[in-house]
C-alpha cells in the first residue's frame, strides 16, 4: 500500500513539473554560459533559415512536422546529447525555440545553452 502511494505521488510530481514547464514562457539565452538554469526553454533569433537548417542537421535534429525538428529519445539520459529536444521555428519573426520534447527539463548546466549558441552560429 505504501509503495503504491509513493509511486502515485512520484508520478503526480513529475506530471506537475511538466505542466509548470509548459506554462512558463521561454527566455532569451544570456550572453554568458549559465552555471545552472531552472526549467530551460530558450527562444533565439537566427541569421538565415538555410544556416539554421544546416546547423539542425549537424546537431542531429530531424524534421517531424512543418517548422518542427526533434532529436533524442524519450528514454534518453540527463545529458543534452540524449534527452528528447524539440525546436520550433517561427519564420515570420525569424526566431526558434528550443524546449523539451517530452514533459520538461528541470535544469540546464549550460549544455542546452551551448546547443543554442551553435544553432545561432555563435561559439564562446
Which terms would index this structure?
124 residues, elongated, five-stranded antiparallel sheet, two-stranded antiparallel sheet, alpha+beta
Structural class: alpha+beta
Anisotropy-based shape: elongated
The biggest sheet amounts to:
5 strands, antiparallel
Helical region count?
3
> What is Rg?
16 Å
Strand content: 15-25%
N→C terminal distance: 52 Å
Task: Give a written overview of the molecule.
With 124 residues, this protein is α+β, with helices and mostly antiparallel strands. It is built from 3 helices and 7 strands. The strands form 2 sheets. It has a 5-stranded antiparallel beta sheet, covered by helices on one side. The chain is elongated. It starts with a helix and ends with a helix.
What's this model, at a glance?
The chain has 3 helices and 7 strands. The chain is α+β, with helices and mostly antiparallel strands and 124 residues long.
How is this fold's topology laid out?
Elements: H1 2-23, E1 37-38, E2 42-45, H2 49-58, E3 62-65, E4 68-71, E5 85-90, E6 95-100, E7 107-108, H3 111-120
Antiparallel strand pairs: 1-7, 2-6, 3-4, 4-5, 5-6
